[in-house]
Amino acid sequence: MSTSITKNTERYKVFHRKGLLIITSACVLIFIGFLLMSGPGSTEQAFNPDIFSVRRIVVAPLLCLIGYLLIIIGVLKKG
Fold it and tell me: Residue 5: how many CB atoms within 10 A of its CB?
């Protein structure tokens, strides 16, 4: 009897283990991307050329985009 209860609870789960793992890793990627984008900005008195670095313009947004795409994959993952 306990196996039928376990099968029924497995049947109605919203996210399975693989999907949750993908979603969690995607959230970590997005968080790292936002951390890479952060940093000091320019002021009216001093211009900071670091705001145009490859890390802030290319790498960090690409990590965020990959993270968002992985969230979509994790939500659609069946099992």
Answer: 9
Q: How far is residue 68 from each of residues 7, 12, 37, 54, measured CA to CA in Å? A: 31, 25, 16, 20
Give the pLDDT of residue 78: 78
pLDDT tens digits, one per residue of 36-57: 999 888 888 888 888 899 999 9
Q: Which segments in the chain show pLDDT lower than 50?
A: none
Residues 6+ apart with CB under 8 A from 36: 55, 56, 59, 60, 63
Place of tokens 């109605």: 12
- Cβ(56)–Cβ(36) below 8 Å: yes
Kindly tell me the number of DSSP H helices and DSSP E strands found in the chain.
4, 0
> What is the token pair recorded at 12?
């109605």
